[in-house]
Each structure stands twice: as structure tokens, then as C-alpha cells.
């Protein structure tokens, strides 16, 4: 038996290949692409996604935490593929990270000695990225700390392999943040100047996520950290419009293709008379004689209750509206006008079916910014398959 789950996620190899090659075509010569796969590869599932990404030409992955880095070690097919932890790592995990060649961010002084000592104990260099505080005000070394930091790393070059100096912009997907980001970039360049004076040449640098990468060519530095775009989503409507205007990009041929399709099947169908209520309470009353289908997907699977009476799914290439409350494990959809719809028919919650498509954003009344949240909330227990 192939799967006991009530829904599955299918990942398109051809879409991912297309996205990676498109994104690489936008890189300046010598700039590296890091594939950001935190949050279970934005819900796509790391076990299936990592090998697919490697086959598409990815040789560097970025994750948030040590446990996610462990996932890369487990699923990568090429032992030379790099992995970088951008966030959480504990002192007790440092030796493991150093021994396995895992790159990690340093963002506070307390960590410097523990990393140094761990590298000495392991007998290998710690591959580190120095995170610069430029205005995000989350983590990172402040202006007053830069010179001492760089000198510490230079002094201990036997224990540190400086892989990068980095920062993160506070919301490059919106033009409203433009000045803040420009100020951040100015601060970042100041830090790079200090680094250059300490190291004799500018160390490798990286700052851009998808939005900054697809908006500001001059902010690519030596590497870009691309999450959402590789999965086939524009970071925001604004970034999409900006690209339509400024690049050779055809409105009818989006160069980014959605990698994920999330699908299930019709579990049961039933006729309901006009005036009857469907499901719990009085949330939905049939305004006419209706045929409804139950779909074995609910909020436990990541199909939010907020899609009650507003979400859509695709059946036979047509939209079927969610009618009634989204339950924990199932929902009811209106198939009155979908000719021939029957038990066992494929139901698409996210992705294409025949000519139509349900984008994550059209999951009800939502903005593109919520792509991230909806995708990463898809439970790891849903099986992922390559196609
Ligand atoms: C998540 C993340 C990224 C990728 O962001 P996208 O908008 O998905 O491209 C890049 N850098 C850091 C530090 C991140 O946390």
C-alpha cells in the first residue's frame, strides 16, 4: 500500500529545475546561491526536497537551527554540499557542527570563546559567518564591536575559517521599507570596510533573501540566500510587478513555477436540499439543492478553519468552494456544478489541475506574505513525493 495518508504533496522536479536555473541566470558572475530550507523546506519536505535541489544544481543549503542542519546531513546525496545554520545553535552543539563541517552564524561575543575552544577540542576549523547588526535589531554584532570581532577572528585564523560576513534586511519585499533597507546596506558596507582593513581584503559577504535579490542586483555580494522564490513564489506582489517592469519577463510566462501540489480525493458525495444546513451549526445553509463532496483534509492537515465558506479546491479542473466549517480532519465542498464529480476524484488544495490553479495566496483572502506561514504549517506527516 502506497500511502495511508488522506492527502499528499507532490513536488515537481521540472519546476524546481526551472526555478533554480532562472534564479541562477539572475546572479552576477561568481555569486553563489544558497537554498534556504528552514521550516521543513517551507513545507515542501526536506527528505524529498534536498536531493531534488542538489540535482537542480544547489550546493549550499541554509537552515535555521542545528536540528535542521542534521536533516541536511541525513538527506544530502553529495557529501560536499554545504550547510549553514543562520540561527539557533547551542554551545553543546558546536563541536558536532565543527566536526561535520557545518557553517554557522556568530552573532554575540559570548559565543566567540566557546566556538574557539570547541574548534581546538575538535582539531578542525570552525566555518563561521559573522552576522552584522545593521538595523534589523534581532541578532548581530553592533558597530562598536566590529573591529575587535574581526581582529579576534584574524588572530585565531588557525581555529576559524571565515566563510562570510552577513546581514539580513528588514522586509525587502515592500517598498515601504526601502529607506530602512538602504540604511542597513550603508551600515553593512561600513562593516565590510572595517573588515577589509583588518583582513587585508574584503571577506565574502551576503545579505539578500529572495526579495532583495530579485530587486537589487547591487546587493548580491558573494552569495544570496533564496527561500520562497526557489519554491516558485514571488516574495510579494510588489516584487513581481517590479520584475515585470524591469526585466525581460513575459506576463504570460512566469519564470517561477510552483513546485508543490497538495492533493487529496473525494471521500463521499451527497445531495442536500435547499434550506438545510451543512456540517456543524448554522455556518452554511444550502441556498438551493446542492451536491456536496467531503474531502478528508482539515485544519489538522494545515487547511485552516479561516477558509470556512471562503476557500476553494480544484476538482476536474473546476473550483469547488468550501461550504461549511473546515473540520479537524475534513471539509465539505460544493460540487453541484461540476459535472460528473464523484467519489475518488482528485482534489487539489494547492497547485494546478487541468487549466486552473489554486495559489497559496488565493487560499481565501490573503496576501502573498502569508505564503510562508501557510506552506510551513503543512504537517511533516503528509507524505511528499517527487514527480
Ligand atoms: C528565511 C531567510 C531567508 C530566505 O528568505 P526568503 O524570503 O524566503 O527568500 C534568507 N535569510 C535569512 C536570514 C532568513 O532567515
Task: Report what the structure shows.
- This protein is an alpha/beta fold and 387 residues long.
- It has helices at residues 13-25, 38-42, 46-55, 66-75, 94-99, 109-122, 146-155, 178-199, 210-213, 237-246, 371-376, and strands at residues 8-11, 32-36, 60-63, 82-85, 103-106, 126-131, 160-166, 205-208, 223-226, 260-265, 268-272, 290-295, 312-315, 318-321, 331-334, 346-353, 356-358, 384-386.
- It binds pyridoxal-5'-phosphate.
- Residues 36, 38, 86, 168, 209-211, 225-229, 235 line the site of pyridoxal-5'-phosphate.
- Pyridoxal-5'-phosphate binds at residues 36, 38, 86, 168, 209-211, 225-229, 235.
Q: Which class of the largest domain in CATH terms? A: Alpha Beta
- Largest beta-sheet details: 8 strands, parallel, barrel
Q: How would you describe the shape?
A: elongated
Give me the oligomer status. Answer: single chain
Overall tally of structural domains: 2
- Mean pLDDT over the residues: 94
Helices and strands in order:
Layout: E1 8-11, H1 13-25, E2 32-36, H2 38-42, H3 46-55, E3 60-63, H4 66-75, E4 82-85, H5 94-99, E5 103-106, H6 109-122, E6 126-131, H7 146-155, E7 160-166, H8 178-199, E8 205-208, H9 210-213, E9 223-226, H10 237-246, E10 260-265, E11 268-272, E12 290-295, E13 312-315, E14 318-321, E15 331-334, E16 346-353, E17 356-358, H11 371-376, E18 384-386
Parallel strand pairs: 1-18, 2-3, 2-9, 3-4, 4-5, 5-6, 6-7, 7-8, 8-9
Antiparallel strand pairs: 1-10, 10-16, 11-12, 12-15, 13-14, 13-16, 16-17
Helix pairs in contact: 3-4, 7-8
This protein binds pyridoxal-5'-phosphate.
Pyridoxal-5'-phosphate is lined by residues 36, 38, 86, 168, 209-211, 225-229, 235.
